[in-house]
Amino acid sequence: MRHLLISLLVAAVAVTATAQGNKADYRVVPLPDRIDGIKGADFRLTEQCLVNYPAGDRNMERNAAMLSQYVEEMTGMHLSTRPTVNTKDRTGNISLIIDPKVNGDEAYSILVTPKGVEISGKTAAGVFFGIQALRKSLPVGTAQAINLPAAQLVSNPRFGYRGMHLDCSRHFFSVATVKRYLDIMALHGMNRLHWHLTDDQGWRVEIKKYPRLAEVGGWRNGTTLGHNSPVNDGIRYGGYYTQEEIRDIVRYAADRYITIIPEIDMPGHMLGALAAYPELGCTGGPYEVWGKWGVTDDILCVGKDHTLQFVKDVLDEVMQLFPGEYIHIGGDESPRVRWQECPLCQQRIRDLGIKSEGKKSAEALLQGWFTTQIQDYLAAHGRRIIGWDELLGCDVDPSATIMSWRGAEPGAEGAKLGHDVVMTPVGPLYFDYYQTSSTWNEPTAFGGCNTLEKVYNFEPVAEDLPADKRHHILGAQANLWTEYVTCEPQVQYQVLPRMAALAEVQWIQPEAKDYQDFKTRLTRLVDIYKLYHWTYRAKSLVEEDEEK
Ligand code: TNX
User: Fold this and answer.
1) What pLDDT, on the 0 to 100 scale, is given for residue 18?
2) Which is the CATH superfamily of the domain at 161-541?
3) What is the per-residue pLDDT for 412?
4) pLDDT by residue (tens digit) across 19-29?
5) Ligand 1, closest atom to CA 406?
């Protein structure tokens, strides 16, 4: 009897859970611009529904396959995909549609009526973001049917540049890890991966013309423990991506409408290359791939023509691998002490007639000259450069896009000078920083404190930026530097759930933002993190940090 009662009780709870759980909820992260209810019954999503896509459109075919895969992962229901030419096939099904009337290149519109679901975009990318929204509105858990309330959703991302960065130099991450990072970005509606591939601690991209870059520059003999302690683990560490692997990753990203922006950091952060080819430095070495963190004085010698040729050769191969418009050429943290003492660099300064101007030293302007050479070279190949905000101190051409990292002010300054700008200020967009002020039980991080709430409340466009300069703010990006990030679960922990907060910064209008409301919606997004066994900081969902 007692057993029967308990089983009945369990059954009753299970039934209620399914009844509640089997309804879609369109209040996802990022929140759509509009969710308008429509009169009429719910649409019932079952395994009988097909995913229609326009016949002959390869991108839409892939979109359909991905939607089908997502639904299966989330609910266990398998939906078949079908190429269609006829609009009457839409009844009872989900249809993916290219519709030039949708307002915005990456915007989506979702129409749910009792008769079917239509996900429309002006482009296949827009449809893909609509697919993500629909996917996120589904409850996680095995189901035979899900009710989708009749409604019309529309959303158009506020910014065109919605980025995440990943440093694969300080620590090296496998192809599978990078692909999962791209999957996480896709779930959050992001479209740019800034991939930091070279630095003092390791060169991570195969360059055929200079094989020692990866073979020698890709490996260090040990790594300091903690924040530059005197203890080095003495363990040889490294790795690199072959060109074939890079192509595979670029394709994987493109399938998710993510453009990869590779960063080859120059003229500083180059010890990996100097260890491989010491003639590229001012002193000639010997150099070692660094087992410490920070900024080294050893940088490229730009007094030698050979160095310029080397950089161009490397960029030739990089351009072959990465079809996107932008190449990130770094430019940050480049001490000029070697240049001050290097006869060849000083000769270059004289030959070019460079003179210091006010606060700008001759060596700073030499970096500007070097950057311009590279910028012109890339421009001749139809590419544009992005660089860190240090470039503002080197008189570079306004056609260079600036990444504002030392706070938000350099970004505003750059925009006023006519540069396009991506906002990625240390506070709050450095995801290598702690996400709480009480760090005792946290994995070691760089320092600082960028809480979920701080990220959520970030506003990329400075209030006092003149109206005619505002269009220069292309968007925002969070950076994951990996000095202290050693494995994939830690990569995920640092970015989740802060990426969700960033996604709302990138997608929705400031007046639509509401942190408390975001947090209630976030719990359902986290159900998806759990489904995929992604590591995330659970405490950020419940606790309020005193340091907001
Ligand atoms: C500064 S951001 C750097 C990186 C470090 C990071 C640590 C930037 C352009 N340079 O080299 O990894 O700080 O937070």
Assistant:
1) 47
2) Glycosidases (3.20.20.80)
3) 95
4) 445 999 999 99
5) 2
